[in-house]
Amino acid sequence: MFDPTVFDNLKVVIEGYIYDLDLGNEISIIHRSDVIDMATMSRIYSIQFVSDHFRSTFVQIDIKMDQQQLAGELLQTINNPGCVVSLTFVEDSKSQDYDVFFYKKLKKNWSGNHDVKLISIKEQTMSSIKYIQKYQVNFISLFGEDDLEELLNIVDNAILLLRMKSRN
To answer: Rounded to two decimals, what is the model's pTM?
Structure first.
């Protein structure tokens, strides 16, 4: 019988939780992907969603399990295998200015034990200039099956922050 990995269990729980929020009209899922990278023998699950009231910013949650963690779990050489989680808010803008208040809020919420960064991208064509602001939280600790509640809290906090952003 197939014994699901930590990655599979986290993915199923987070996906189900976010789809329930979509069905309840809390958010709208705009994209998802589930990739097995054969070159690095790793897995990544990514899901993106927006608030129904504020579509100019979307949230992306990534769950990744690298070869070392995946092999360690399957071969039972790692006691507590886990996944890396990141949370990104992506916003299109006509201005290079970023939302200072929002960035400070992210840092206040998560910078103590996690990597919070702002990535600004300028996209220029012959006829237009567009700016993309990415507010990213890379959670330093690995997430295992015992951390499901914390992972769901990240989703809930992301939705609250998205709603806060929509009021600005």
So the answer is: 0.92
Strands 114-124 and 54-65: unpaired
**Using an 8 Å Cβ cutoff, are 61 and 14 in contact?**
yes
pLDDT at residue 168, rounded to an integer: 61
43-49 contacts at long range (C-beta below 8 A, 24 or more positions apart): 43/5, 43/7, 43/70, 45/7, 45/10, 45/11, 45/14, 45/15, 47/14, 47/15, 47/18, 49/18, 49/21, 49/22
> How confident is the model over 52-94, as pLDDT tens digits?
777 789 999 999 999 999 999 988 899 999 999 999 999 988 8
DSSP assignments along 20-59, one per residue: HHHHTTS-EEEEEEEEEETTTTEEEEEEEEEETTEEEEEE
- How confident is the model over 17-28, as a mean pLDDT? 96
